[in-house]
Design goal:
The protein is an alpha/beta fold. It is 23% helix and 27% strand. It folds into two domains: 187 residues, FAD/NAD(P)-binding domain (3-Layer(bba) Sandwich); 106 residues, FAD/NAD(P)-binding domain, CATH 3.50.50.60. Strands 1, 2, 3, 4, 5, 6 and 17 form a seven-stranded mixed beta sheet that branches. The longest helix has 22 residues. It is elongated, with a radius of gyration of 21 Å. 40% of the residues are buried.
């Protein structure tokens, strides 16, 4: 039986594995189908992680050292997909793809969330090279330059406001003629002089070359008129898809308490409503969606796992 099963190999999962193994647990496995590292491995530059400032290093380079460090302390990497996790008595049963089962005393789920795609031409081609889903991560690259934001919810307007303090101008493209965001958020954004709104419109194409994004073509959904706008930064905020399927039982019900947006409800110790089950990273409520925060979540969850096991013994 595993002391701890960690599901998800991003910054939260890897850090949880490091702290669990260094903390004395001998039988800890990280379940991740691909190479551990998470979404940050797709980033072309890392500038906002404390102690790491090298513009020649990519997200993949950044996470490579994490893997080596974690596995050095005895963390096992299982390249197997976990289909479900159930509480069976005092322990957990993980059902893997193919029907194999694994028992564990505790579990940390760190499967994260992925930004929803808007599906315009060039979105995938220029992702990480001008197309971004994180203003906090990438906004500084466009200091004193114009950028475009796609979206009309709270996140889109909040990120547009954040960018307005860095960039020269922020053009918010929204397919409707009014926003879905909360009134205070709308009011704050509309009062900012360098935030401009383009209603009834969508991004038709992201254009550029091997150097990256150079501009966007914006289509008015009522007139079909195309307007080209030159800029090197496009931020897409059209929602998040939380990767929570592993927490559903055979009846498609969640095994722990969830928020209305299908994120896991945890306390400050990353504890869920199920004893022995912890959640870390973007899967949890109010996650900042930053590498440094996910790593902090992972360390907290692992330390709590150690305490939980000691209490059970």
């Amino acid at each position: 039986m595993l002391d701890c099963a960690i599901i998800g190999g991003g910054p939260a999962g890897l850090t949880a594995g490091l702290y669990a193994t260094r903390g004395g647990l001998k039988n800890v496995a990280l379940f991740e189908m691909g190479v551990p590292g998470g979404q940050i491995t797709k980033s072309s530059e890392i500038e906002n992680y404390p102690g790491f400032f090298d513009s020649t290093k990519t997200g993949l380079d950044f996470m490579d050292t994490w893997q080596k460090q974690c596995f050095n302390f005895g963390l096992k990497h299982e390249m197997k997909k976990v289909e479900t996790i159930d509480k069976t008595g005092e322990h957990f049963t993980l059902t893997l793809e193919g029907g194999e089962t694994v028992e564990a005393m505790t579990a940390i789920v760190a499967t994260g969330a992925v930004p929803r795609r808007a599906n315009f031409n060039g979105e995938d081609e220029f992702y990480g090279r001008g197309v971004s889903t994180c203003a906090t991560c990438d906004g500084f690259f466009y200091k004193d330059k114009p950028v475009t934001v796609l979206g009309g919810g709270d996140t889109a307007l909040e990120e547009a406001f954040y960018l307005s303090n860095i960039c020269s101008d922020v053009y918010v493209v929204h397919r409707r003629d009014e926003f879905r965001a909360a009134p205070p958020t709308i009011d704050r954004a509309t009062r900012k002089e360098n935030i401009h709104f383009i209603f009834d419109s969508v991004i038709e194409d992201a254009v550029g070359d091997k150097m990256g994004l150079s501009g966007v073509d914006i289509r008015n959904v009522k007139t079909d008129k195309i307007t080209h706008m030159d800029n090197t930064g496009l931020f897409v905020f059209v929602g998040q898809d939380v990767k929570n399927d592993v927490l559903k039982d055979a009846s498609d019900n969640f095994i722990c308490k969830m928020s209305e947006s299908a994120q896991v409800i945890v306390d400050l110790n990353m504890k869920t409503s199920v004893p022995g089950l912890f959640v870390a990273g973007d899967l949890r409520i109010e996650a900042p969606k930053q590498v440094v925060s996910a790593a902090g979540d992972g360390s907290i969850a692992a330390l709590q796992v150690i305490s939980y096991i000691q209490e059970q013994q």
